[in-house]
Amino acid sequence: MAEERAQWTSRVGFILAAAGSAVGLGNIWRFSYAAGTEGGGAFILIYLAAAVFIGYPLLVSEISIGRATRKNPIGAFRTLAPNAPWWLVGAIGVLTAFVILSYYSVVAGWAFAYTFESLRGLYQPSVDHAEHFTKHISDPVAPILWHAAFMAITIGVIAMGVVKGIQRVVQVLMPLLFLLAIVIMIRSITLPGAGEGIAFILTPDFSEVTPLTVLHAVAQAFFTISLGMGAMITYGSYLRKKDPIPSSAGTIIGLDTFVAIIAGFAIFPAVFAFGFDPAAGPGLAFITLPGVFTEMPLGAVFGFLFFLLLTIAALTSSISLLEVVVAWLKDEHKWKRTKAAVVVGCAMFAIGVLPSLGYSVLSHVQAFEMNILDLYDWFATSILLPLGGLLTIIFAGYVWGARKLSEEANEGTGKLRFGPGMGFMFLVKVVVPLAVLAVLIAGLYEKFAA
Ligand code: PHE
Question: What's the whole-model pTM score?
Answer without folding.
Answer: 0.95
